[in-house]
Design a protein that fits this description.
The longest helix is centred in the middle third of the chain and has 53 residues. By secondary structure, the protein is α/β, with parallel strands linked by helices. Strand 7, helix 17 and strand 8 form a beta-alpha-beta unit. The chain is built from 20 helices and ten strands. It is about 60% helix and about 10% strand.
């Protein structure tokens, strides 16, 4: 069955090159050729009208029949309007197709950028590329057809005007040339201003998006006024830049109109003088004036169009800047395909790994070494800031170590193609993130083949989420993320169900019990135990009640590994671990007794 997604353009590394509008539009040769042909017909029809008016005036003066030229003039006017409308639609359709393809490329490229790059760019700034920047690029398509035709119309009109009277034509060209020189000096500043506006739009969009995500906290701490003032400051910066652009944009049509009026006055004065001298006939002067008036709209389109073109080119440069950002590091191995896991090798091995967060002065991890078994439960514990979550991020290659080596299933992480390695790992983050998609789609993220409903139900049963999902309007096919969404605890359990449904060899769980009550924590233990019977489960946890039965516990502190062993061993020999256990809100007697 064909779905809407079947028609999406394929986004590959090759598609991530710079935007070249000529190359993009070359994908629609038939439409553009037809649009150009129709536009030429419309231009020819428009050029014929003044000549037919000249013929009508001559026939009227000589008392001849005007029927034929009148009918021809009406046909030219109507035919020109129809062909112009059809041409405009074909150009618009090609433009919409092109912008759709570019948006898909930009969004696909953004999804493949490193997390650090996406965070540095900001969600608002990235969103502006497919919204306001895309709209500016869209108008370039129209201008790409309109400006050549406008130039062609002006050129042909001037040729006919030279044929009628070269002196009046020279006066007209001199007036328009002066306008062109003045406007060309303004256009460079227009392009720079548009870039500034787009940056300001991205900044305010980023802050507004961030504040909406944090709206609960803002309301809880009565910080609405503070947030509104900050947003107003960003809006003021945008207003200032936009006002400067508005001044530049307003000057262009004013100068154009002034130039047209100067040309018209000069032509009338010169033409009157030449008619008085007998060098120009009334019918010729009337036709020349009609051509002059007919030249004004395309001449105005040229001057204002070049201004809009600068805005579109600035948007293209911003999009190209994004597309030039490097994607996540791919494999450096010469292997043609993903390596097979080495039998008996540990699931994960860190060998003297160090990592520093961008912009930080100290290391998040320093010379960290540990090994996790191929099957079973490994707990990574320690105080906040110990580097536990950073270790998980390094395993899944969201970030890369500054030094040292990480091995996954017996092969260096750099030897795995990124997609193939992540197919071996299921990751449940602290936020238990779900997508704006149906429950069914959220549960099956990462699967190469869809799971049957009975498997989905079994996974939901395991995390006690079946009744909650059944209560949704469309059950498994209910879209989540807007007017209908899950609570924090429900999202957490759905993330665990997703891990159950995955085919991954390694399951990473980052603080999986943070939003679970005591009953659901026991269910989590059962799910984790089930996963650990056939896979490597690595859990970052603060609540040791969930992981004290782990086969292997890694104690971390201050970015390093303090000790590793099972719970009983660490209780005996690791002071830091005993202190951590003592601070937990658990049944202290049972836990301490089990270690003695």
């Amino acid at each position: 069955m064909t779905t809407h997604h079947d028609h999406l353009p394929q986004v590959t590394d090759a598609a991530s090159g710079r935007i070249r509008l000529r190359r993009e539009l070359a994908a629609f040769p038939g439409q553009l050729a037809a649009a150009l042909l129709l536009a030429l017909v419309a231009t020819a029809a428009a050029l014929s009208v003044p000549l037919l008016v000249k013929e009508i005036i001559t026939d009227f003066a000589t008392h001849q029949s005007m029927l034929t030229p009148v009918l021809l003039m009406c046909a030219a006017a109507i035919g020109g309007a129809v062909t112009q409308a059809v041409s405009g639609f074909l150009i618009a359709r090609a433009g919409e197709h092109m912008i759709y393809r570019l948006r898909a490329r930009i969004m696909g490229h953004t999804m493949r950028l490193p997390l650090a790059t996406v965070r540095a760019q900001g969600a608002g700034n990235l969103t502006a590329r497919i919204t306001s920047d895309a709209l500016l690029l869209r108008q370039v398509v129209d201008l790409g057809a309109q400006l050549p035709l406008a130039a062609l119309t002006v050129g042909f009109t001037l040729v006919v005007m030279v044929w009628i009277d070269w002196v009046l034509t020279l006066v007209t060209v001199a007036s328009l040339a002066l306008v062109t020189i003045v406007i060309s000096l303004i256009l460079a500043r227009v392009k720079s201003n548009v870039t500034g506006q787009q940056v300001a739009i991205g900044k305010i969009a980023q802050r507004f998006t961030s504040n909406l995500d944090a709206l609960t906290t803002i309301k809880a701490y009565r910080a609405e006024s503070l947030a509104a003032r900050t947003l107003a400051g960003d809006a003021e910066q945008l207003r200032t830049v936009s006002l400067h652009g508005a001044r530049l944009q307003s000057v262009i049509p004013a100068i154009t109109a002034l130039g047209n009026q100067v040309a018209l006055i000069a032509v009338i004065l010169t033409g009157g003088t030449r008619m008085a001298a007998g060098d120009l006939q009334m019918a010729e002067f009337a036709a020349f004036l009609l051509y002059l008036l007919q030249t004004i709209p395309p001449a105005t389109a040229l001057t204002t169009g070049f201004s809009r073109l600068q805005a579109g080119l600035a948007a293209r440069e911003r999009c190209n800047e994004l597309l030039s950002l490097p994607l996540e590091t791919e494999t450096t191995s010469s292997r043609p395909s993903a390596p097979a896991p080495v039998p008996g090798a540990p699931s994960i091995n860190f060998d003297a790994v160090s990592y520093t967060h961008p912009g930080a002065t100290g290391s998040a991890l320093h010379n960290v070494s540990f090994t996790t078994p191929r099957v079973g439960l490994t707990a990574i514990v320690g105080p906040s800031g110990a580097g536990k979550t950073t270790a998980l991020s390094l395993i899944d290659r969201f970030v890369h170590p500054a030094s040292g080596r990480i091995s996954v299933l017996g092969h260096g992480a750099e030897d795995w193609p990124l997609d193939a390695m992540r197919a071996r790992i299921a990751y449940v983050d602290q936020a238990f993130t779900s997508l704006e998609a149906t429950v069914r789609e959220n549960l099956q993220l990462g699967r190469t083949t869809p799971a049957a409903d009975d498997r989905l139900t079994a996974a939901l049963d395991a995390v006690d989420l079946t009744d909650d999902i059944a209560a949704l309007p469309q059950g498994l096919d209910t879209p989540l993320g807007r007017e209908i969404d899950l609570s924090g605890g429900q999202r957490q359990r759905m993330a665990l169900a997703r891990a159950l449904l995955s085919d991954a060899d390694i399951v990473l769980l980052d603080e999986p019990t943070s939003q679970l009550d005591g009953i659901n924590e026991q269910r989590l233990r059962a799910v984790v135990d089930e996963l650990a019977t056939s896979r490597a489960v690595i859990v970052v946890a603060h609540r040791l009640s969930t992981v004290q039965h782990a086969h292997h516990v890694i104690m971390m502190a201050a970015g390093g590994v303090v000790d590793a062993g099972d719970h009983a061993t660490l209780m005996t020999r690791c002071l830091e671990y005993r202190e951590l256990v003592a601070t937990q809100a658990i049944d202290t007697v049972d836990v301490i007794a089990s270690g003695r």
